[in-house]
Write a structure and sequence with these properties.
Strand order of the largest sheet: 10-9-11-12-13-14
Number of helices: 19
Distance between the termini: 117 Å
Mean pLDDT: 80
Largest sheet: 6 strands, mixed
Length: about 500
């Protein structure tokens, strides 16, 4: 009896090993995670890994003993809303031993579906509360939450990756709610919709709701371009107080009536209110670029360059900060915007330090200038390669165009070394430090999301920088730093 029991346990143990392994038998279900009442669910097991003879399939619904299908596919039409748990059993015979595996998939059946997309500024706890409220109201709220915090110019790329992996979240949705303070989620939605004809066609009967704490008029002006491409039924721009009425209202028209009664601010963009105007040429150009493949990150960087240059001019002419010209800190500031200020600062410090150490080590060789610089660039490139490898190891994602940004930043090593040769180490460090400080101040100003939305909505504002620079060009007074430097002289003059 003991031998028989051991033999039985041995067979069970072997079957367990075979079942848990991915090679001989593995059940995989492909199919939707949610579907409307009355629509047919098709679940497919053809991607399963199966080996052996006498392979059988059995599909079960939770609570039902009899299988609904014994083929590689299961077809089922739900008649009531709720959660359905499908279980797939696969059985096979290998070496005269029967093994089996199973897997499950939960499908939510809904009467009304709303898709909510939120960025990292919205806590998961808050989203969970709204999802529970929707369930109590009989509404299926599909939540897509951005998993990582990205730099402002990379947020669209992060959202695009998230939404492309969850395309089924938009099928059957009555409304799509975007809970962000800018247009990053809308830009990402536009990218994936343009490549999927089915989603784009379905969007014509859907409404897009933008939840924001920024100015409604500003965001509405920026949203006209995406509206022209996506062509939804309407875009409603409103406040976070409108989420519960949106969930409880049976349709968009009823929500608008409810918002008016509750005195909730909102704006509606539709075919009657949206149109590109000829008289605002720069806004029309920006909208055309954004809606025809040019990323909003590129547009923002181009619009921010005149503003960064103006800020640096103010620091130079009025405050008296010494920088490496105007072009160098502008490029450093744009690099910080593209990479994130702390990653950009880390790379920049490594570039300068590596260049200085390499040149110090080559001092005894007495090489000519160009070969020496070529060796420095080689060492800097290897250092950047190691840094990129370390970043990849720790899961720090960088944009595709990072290499071009780093190459531009690498030129600062040569600039620093020339400065050190001409003026000495201490003055070179001070000038580089003030350049980085001025660049960081520019990043703090232009990285403000509300400021970016305003500039993207009203790009004509960058023309004001011409007027500001004209006034700065006429400024002949003392700089603020000079008031501190010559305070004793100024005090003596006042006493006399």
């Amino acid at each position: 009896m003991i031998v028989s029991l051991a033999h039985t346990l041995g067979i069970a143990f072997a079957a367990t090993i075979q079942t848990s392994g991915a090679e001989p038998l593995q059940a995989i279900i492909r199919g939707p995670e949610d579907i409307a009442v009355g629509r047919t669910i098709v679940l497919d097991a053809s991607s399963s890994i199966v080996e052996g003879d006498n392979i059988t399939y059995a599909w079960y619904i939770d609570g039902v003993v009899k299988p609904i299908s014994t083929s590689v596919e299961a077809i089922y039409t739900p008649e009531e809303p709720g959660d359905l748990l499908f279980t797939l059993h696969i059985q096979s015979t290998i070496d005269d031993e029967k093994i089996e595996t199973r897997t499950q998939q939960r499908v939510t059946v809904f009467r009304r579906k709303i898709t909510l997309i939120a960025d990292t500024s919205i806590s998961r706890e808050k989203l969970t509360i709204h999802k529970q409220s929707a369930n109590e109201a009989g509404v299926f709220l599909r939540v897509l939450h951005s998993p990582v915090a990205a730099t402002p110019v990379r947020t669209t790329e992060e959202f695009t990756t998230l939404l492309s992996e969850e395309k089924d979240a938009f099928l059957g949705a009555e409304s799509i709610i975007l809970w962000t303070d800018n247009l990053t989620a809308l830009q990402a939605l536009m990218r994936i919709m343009e490549t999927d004809a089915e989603l784009l066609t379905a969007l014509e009967k859907q409404s897009i709701i933008l939840i924001t704490s920024r100015g409604l008029q500003t965001l509405a002006r920026t949203a006209t371009g995406p509206f022209a491409v996506l062509k939804p039924q309407q875009i409603i721009i409103t406040r976070k107080e409108a989420i519960n009425p949106l969930i409880l209202a049976k349709n968009s028209e009823m929500f608008i009536q409810e918002a008016k009664q509750r005195d909730i601010d909102f704006l509606v963009l539709d075919k009657t209110t949206v149109g590109l105007r000829i008289w605002n040429a720069l806004s029309t150009l920006v909208n055309y670029m954004v809606t025809h493949g040019v990323s909003s990150e590129t547009v923002i960087l181009l619009l921010m360059l005149p503003i960064i240059a103006t800020i640096l001019t103010f620091f130079k002419q009025v405050v008296g900060i010494t920088t490496l010209g105007l072009f160098t800190p502008s490029i450093v500031a744009l690099s910080f915007l593209a990479l994130g200020w702390w990653i950009g600062l880390l790379f920049l410090l490594f570039i300068i330090t590596t260049g200085y150490i390499t040149r110090s080590l080559m001092r005894r060789w007495r090489l000519l200038y160009f070969p020496k610089v070529a060796i420095i660039i080689t060492v800097v490139s290897l250092t950047l390669l190691v840094l990129l490898g370390i970043g990849t190891f720790f899961g720090i994602g960088l944009p595709r165009d990072t290499i071009f940004i780093l190459l531009i930043m690498s030129t600062l090593a040569e600039t620093f070394l020339n400065l050190k040769t001409e003026q000495g180490l201490r003055p070179a460090i001070l000038i580089i430090g003030e350049t980085i400080f001025a660049s960081l101040l520019c990043v703090i100003i232009v990285q403000w999301s509300a400021f970016q939305v305003i500039i993207l909505a009203y790009p004509e504002l960058i023309l004001v920088t011409i007027v500001i620079n004209a006034f700065l060009g006429k400024y002949t007074g003392l700089r603020l730093v000079e008031y501190v430097r010559f305070r004793e002289v100024l005090r003596t003059l006042q006493e006399e």
